[in-house]
Amino acid sequence: MNTLFEILPLLIPILLIDIALAVGAVRHILRHPCYRFGNKTMWLVIAIVLLLFGPLIYFAFGKGEME
User: Fold this and answer.
1) pLDDT per residue as tens digits for the range 22-51
2) So where are the chain's domains?
3) DSSP track, 22-64
4) Phi then psi for 63, rounded to 5 degrees?
5) What is the pLDDT at residue 67?
6) Half-sphere exposure of residue 40: CA atoms within 13 angstroms, side-chain side
7) pTM
């Protein structure tokens, strides 16, 4: 338990960045109809379930160009 309190100052910024990326990914998925592959439902599941890496996967591979 003591080690958790030692690394907590490092975990809080990582968690905040991760939450911001997840919110940004979900907002983008809901507002834009274009994806490189897959559909809106698939990308929402990936962004929410894989919270740590899901938004990064979406922005790297799923985000399509605007028409």
Assistant:
1) 999 999 989 988 888 888 899 899 988 988
2) 13-62
3) HHHHHHHHHH---BSSS-HHHHHHHHHHTTTTHHHHIIIIIBP
4) -70, 120
5) 46
6) 9
7) 0.76
